[in-house]
Amino acid sequence: MTKYADLHIHTTASDGDYSPEAVVRAAKAQGFSALAITDHDTLSGLAEAQKISKEIGIELLTGVEISTVHQEKEVHILGYLIDPTNEYLQEKLNLMNNYRQERIAKMVKRLNDVGYEISLNRVYEISGQGAIGRPHVAKALWEKGYIKNIKEAFLKLLSPGCPAYIPRFKITPEEAIELITTAGGIPVLAHPGINLDDDLIPYLKNTGLMGLEVWHPEHSSQMVEKYYKIATQLDLLMTGGSDWHGNNKDASFSLGVIKVDYYHVEKLKLKHIEIRK
Ligand code: AMP
Ligand code: FE
Ligand code: FE
Ligand code: ZN
What we know:
Blueprint: E1 4-9, H1 20-29, E2 34-37, H2 46-56, E3 59-61, E4 63-70, E5 73-80, H3 87-113, H4 120-127, H5 134-143, H6 150-158, H7 173-182, E6 186-189, H8 200-206, E7 211-215, H9 221-234, E8 237-240, E9 260-261, H10 263-276
Parallel strand pairs: 1-2, 2-3, 6-7, 7-8
Antiparallel strand pairs: 1-9, 4-5, 5-6
Zinc ion (ZN) binds next to loops.
């Protein structure tokens, strides 16, 4: 029997719809042997996920997805097998989350100024416990009928160049790689097929990148083939996952659409042991 994993999943700790417990249970129900929870810029879902994964018997890899900026472009760096108790990592993520709150307040104010009547309180209600972000603003706009769907909110209002857009906390991919490595984790470049130049991969490898996300719902089979080759050539680990957010994103991002051979989890774990020596 082949064992498989999903190494890229969001929960209510960031902009996913389902709690860490619900996500772990769903992965178990679908027959996954392992999963990684990779919330945006936060570790706050990991304790709950760890507890439930032990109870029901599915392997959980600690994870995080750090949002960074490189030459004006958004670059996401995944960190696997990080130590969630690492103070340096916690401190930096706290800083990023404080900034997230300021930023969303400013974005809501701008939307109000141009006539979209949504309240910051409502955006916080929607975000729940999680790291607040643009998807929560999008939902508030949607439920008031200002837009047809979440994508439209991003397209018209919430992306760079739009009136309500405020940039994120500026951290570079190099800094995120360093941060993850310091916390004992393995830094991996997320979904390179979404808007990134291939040149970035060898560049980041030279700054300490250890893996490449080869399998992702937005990667065509040609892209998968290409990134598989690049990872092999550059001796990078390979990962993949559904980037499941619950109902926030379309069905192509559902749990079960990406099944990564457990072999790659073993490689991650071996690397983790190797770097701790
Ligand atoms: P933030 O971290 O607040 O900048 O929000 C970024 C998140 O918004 C991403 O991680 C996605 O989950 C979501 N997102 C970005 N662009 C889009 C889009 N065009 N449609 C739907 N969701 C998006
Ligand atoms: Fe997201
Ligand atoms: Fe991402
Ligand atoms: Zn993601």
